[in-house]
Each structure stands twice: as C-alpha cells, then as structure tokens.
C-alpha cells in the first residue's frame, strides 16, 4: 500500500483555518485524519481536550521536546504548539491522508524534514486585514494585547508564503474549501493513491 498524503494548512490567526478544515474533513473521498496537536495554550470556550488539542503543561511539553516526540513544534504568541510524530507516520503508513493545521515555522520544519512526494501545502489568505481583525475579535477569547500580537504575527506570516504549494484566498468558506478539496483530489490522483 502507498503511504498517505501529508497535508499542511497554514494561515494567519483568525483567517478561518479551523472552519475550512472541518468543511474539508466532511468529504469521505479524501480519506483524511486530523493530526491533533499538543499545546500549552489554555482551552477556549468550546474546545475539547483530545479533540481540538491535547492541552498540556509547559513541563509536559518540554519533556516531549526532550524525548524527540514532535515532528515539529513552534512558539506562537507566548504558547507552544507541536505535532506528535509517531501518530502522523503510523497513519500515513496505513494509507490515511493526514491533515496538519500549523503555523509557518512548523510548516517550514515539516517541509525540510519530510522529503517524500506525498506532501502538499496550502496557505490561506484573508480577503483583507480588516476582515482578519474582525474575525479575531469575534472570537472574544483573547485580551487586546494578544489580539494585537496575533494580528502583527499574521501580517508577517502573509509575507512569508513562498514555500507553500498553493495560496488560497478565503473570501468565501465554501469556495476556499472546494478549491483545497479539488487540489487534494488531484494530488491523490497523480500519485495513484486511491486504488
Ligand atoms: P490557536 O491558538 O489560534 O489555536 O493557534 C495558533 C497558531 O498555532 C495557529 O496558526 C495554528 O494553526 C498553529 N498551530 C496549531 N497546532 C500547531 C502545531 O502543532 N504546530 C505548529 N507549528 N503550529 C500549530
């Protein structure tokens, strides 16, 4: 059996990565599994441990770094986020397509470590900075200074997209999700994975 794809989705905080991901994951033809990250960030209102993230202490995160348990990890506005390594490989070997929703430093690490042809990366762009700010504020989960930091970080990320295979404009959720779905299906077809 061929190894499954590794799909990377990045984009500035508030661009709507989670919404797009959930939409894409509904399509059974894509055979997707979401890689649940580990984070030191506190859960937001509706977030569930083991579903949205594995919420861990700084000490637990640190011990995972020391034990080389991450495919990649990065610091983002005061918290750490990482992708557990073994699970990703295990699922890909089983032929599943693994979906990573990670920021750009992490994406860069994955792209330099995983050299096989089954990697496909997307960067999601907001229609405007105003729209981005509106979305972050709508979440009502962060204090003003964090909102500001996330926005500044997002603006910087949007200038560093050259390593991504595809830049996708998130003007309408349905349209952006459809574009990404089509590109993943094309890649599956090219690599002959859905036999
Ligand atoms: P948030 O706090 O908004 O959930 O996530 C902050 C940023 O960290 C987002 O850009 C999100 O995609 C990214 N992120 C989530 N999990 C991971 C991970 O495992 N590794 C890396 N590098 N970034 C992650």
Top keywords for this entry?
four-stranded mixed sheet; Rossmann fold; alpha/beta; globular; five-stranded parallel sheet; 22% strand; 195 residues
Task: Describe the 3D structure.
By secondary structure, this protein is α/β, with parallel strands linked by helices. The chain has a single domain (6-193), classed as 3-Layer(aba) Sandwich (Rossmann fold), CATH 3.40.50.300. It has helices at residues 17-25, 58-66, 85-93, 104-113, 129-138, 144-157, 173-190, and strands at 6-10, 32-34, 37-39, 53-55, 70-76, 79-84, 97-101, 119-125, 166-169. Strands 2-7-1-8-9 form a five-stranded parallel β-sheet, with helices on both faces. The protein starts with 5 loop residues before the first strand and ends in a 5-residue tail after the last helix. Bound molecules: guanosine-5'-monophosphate.
User: Compounds present?
Assistant: guanosine-5'-monophosphate
Strand order of the largest sheet: 2-7-1-8-9
For the record, the CATH architecture stands as 3-Layer(aba) Sandwich
Q: Which quaternary structure do these chains form?
A: single chain
Please identify the structural class as seen in this structure. alpha/beta
**Cα radius of gyration in angstroms:** 16 Å
Total separate domains: 1
Rounded to the nearest angstrom, the distance between the terminal CA atoms is 9 Å
* Individual helix count: 7
Shape: globular
The percent range for helix content is 40-55%
């Amino acid at each position: 059996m061929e190894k499954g794809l590794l799909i990377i989705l990045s984009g500035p905080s508030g661009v709507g990565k989670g919404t797009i991901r959930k939409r894409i994951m509904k399509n059974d033809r894509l055979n997707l599994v979401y890689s649940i990250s580990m984070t030191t960030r506190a859960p937001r209102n509706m977030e569930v441990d083991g579903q949205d993230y594995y919420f861990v202490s700084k000490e637990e995160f640190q011990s995972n770094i020391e034990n080389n348990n991450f495919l990649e990890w990065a610091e983002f506005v005061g918290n750490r986020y990482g992708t557990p390594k073994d699970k990703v490989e295990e699922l890909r070997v089983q032929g599943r397509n693994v979906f990573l929703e990670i920021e750009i430093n992490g994406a860069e690490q994955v792209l330099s470590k995983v050299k096989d042809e089954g990697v496909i990366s997307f960067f999601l762009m907001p229609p405007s900075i105003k729209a981005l700010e509106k979305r972050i504020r709508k979440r009502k989960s962060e204090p003003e200074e964090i909102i500001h930091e996330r926005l500044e970080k997002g603006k910087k990320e949007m200038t560093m997209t050259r390593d991504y295979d595809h830049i996708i404009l998130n003007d309408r959720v349905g349209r952006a999700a459809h574009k990404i779905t089509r590109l993943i299906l094309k890649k599956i077809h090219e690599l002959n994975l859905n036999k």
